Amino acid sequence: MSPETYAQVSNLLIPTATVIYVLALISHAMEWALGRASVAQAPAEQEEAKAQLVASGATASAASAAVGSAGVAEGGSASAGSSISGAEGAASSERLDAASRIGLLLTWLGFVLHLGGVVTRGLAAGRVPWGNMYEFSITASLAVAIVYLIFVQKYKLQWLGLGVTFVIAAVLGLASLALYTPAGPLVPALHSYWLVIHVSSAAISGGAFTVGGLVSVLYLVKARAERKALAGGTMSASLRRLPSAEAMDGTAYKVLAFAFPLWTFGVLVAGPIWAEHAWGRYWGWDPKEVWSLVTWVVYAAYLHARATAGWRGRRAATIAIVGWFVFIFNFVGVNLLVSGLHSYAGV
Predict the structure, then answer these.
(1) Under a CB-based contact definition with an 8 Å cutoff, are residues 184 and 125 in contact?
(2) Same domain, 243 and 161
(3) Do both 89 and 228 map to the same domain?
(4) What is the membrane topology here (predicted)?
(5) Contact, 341 vs 279, CB < 8 A?
C-alpha cells in the first residue's frame, strides 16, 4: 500500500478505537453503577471483607462488627438486609461480572484497533510514529493500554478498567479533534535512533505512571470505605469487589517501581544524549527538561519515602497522585502552553 493509503487506514482506525474505548468505558461505568446499592453479604463475602479489613490494620473484633454492619442495606435493618434472597444476590453478582468481562473484551478490541492505527501511522510517515504531539498522544495512550492489559493478566487489575478507558478515550479524542497533523517527515534535528529510545521509554513509563496513579486514587476510595465500614457504615458491592486497600497500595508500588528506572534511563540518560546530538548540548534547562526532572524528583521521593521512612497508605498514595499530575502537565501543559525546543505542536 502507498503511504497515503496507510494514512487513511490510520485515520480510520484511531477514531474507531476511540469509539470502542468509549463503549468499554460505558460498560465499566455500568459495572460500578450496578454495584452502588449495598446488599447483604453472603457468609463467604463477609469473611473476605473481614480479612481485607484485618489486613488493613483493624482488629478482628472491629472487623467483624464492621462487616456485620456493612451487610445491612442503607436505610434498612439487619433483618431486612438478610431477607434478600441468595438468588437475587447471585444474579446481581453475575450482572457485575458480565459488565466487567464485556468492558475488558471491548478494551482488548480497542487496543487491537489502536495498535493498528499507530502502526499504520508509522508506515504512512516512514518512521517511528511519535514525531509530533498527535503521534505521541496516540502512542502514549497505547502504552497505557499495554501496561494495563499486561497487569490485568499478572495482577488481575480489571477493576481499574473505568479509569483506564476514560484516560485513553479522552487522550485519543483530544488527539483526533485538536492535535491532528498529517503524516510527514521529521525535522532534521529529530533524525536519530536516540529518538526511538528516548520517546519509547518515556511513553511506556508514562503509561505505568498513569496506571499507578489510577490505582492510588482507587486506594484512597477503598481505604475511606473501609474506615466507614469499621465505624458501622456500609460498603457498596462495587467497592467490596475491589482488593483491599493494603493490596492496592502494594500494587501501586510495584507499578511505579517498574516505571521509575525506565523513566530515569529514557528521560535523564537517553534524553540528554539525544539533545547533544540534536542541539549540541546535553542539558539546557528547556521547560520540558525541567518538568521531566521535576517528575523524576517526585517519584524518587515516593520510592525513597517508602524505602526509608516506611511511608505506606495515604501519604504514599498522595505523592503518587501528585507525581501523576506533574507527569500530565509535563506531557500536555509544557507542550501546548510553554514555548521551547521540545514543543511538538510545530513539528
Answers:
(1) yes
(2) no
(3) no
(4) Multi-pass membrane protein
(5) yes
State the residue range of the domain holding 28: 1-39+84-183
Q: What is the pLDDT of residue 145?
A: 96
Q: How far apart are CA 148 and CA 111, in angstroms?
A: 11
Residue 264 CA, chain-centre distance (Å), reads 20
* Largest CA-CA distance found in the chain, in angstroms, rounded: 76
What pLDDT, on the 0 to 100 scale, is given for residue 49?
Answer: 52
Q: 27 and 162 share a domain?
A: yes
Let me know: does 268 contact 65? Beta carbons within 8 Å. no
Residues 3 and 92 in one domain: yes
Residues with Cβ within 8 Å of 104's Cβ and at least 6 positions away in sequence, in order, are 24, 152, 158, 161
CA 190, CA 128: separation in Å to the nearest integer?
Answer: 11
Domain boundary among 162, 183, 204: 183
Give the number of domains in the chain.
2
Question: Quick one: pLDDT at residue 161?
Answer: 92
pLDDT of residue 318: 95
Residue 226 CA to residue 218 CA, distance in Å, equals 12
Q: How far apart are CA 267 and CA 326, in angstroms?
A: 15
Cβ-contact 131, 347 below 8 angstroms: yes
The average pLDDT across 39-58 equals 49
Residue 53 lies in a domain: no
pTM of the model: 0.80
Beta strands in 27-128 (DSSP E): none
Asked whether the beta carbons of 38 and 234 are under 8 A apart, the reply is yes
Q: Which three cell numbers stand for residue 221?
A: 476510595
Q: Lowest-confidence range among 220-229, 290-299, 332-341?
A: 332-341
Task: Answer yes or no: do 179 and 284 share one domain.
Answer: no
Residues 145, 194, single domain; the answer is: no
**Per-residue pLDDT tens digits for 323-339:** 999 999 988 878 777 66
Neighbours of 187 (CB within 10 A): 12
Residue 142 has pLDDT above 70, yes or no: yes
Q: Do 128 and 162 share a domain, yes or no?
A: yes
75 or 110, greater pLDDT: 110
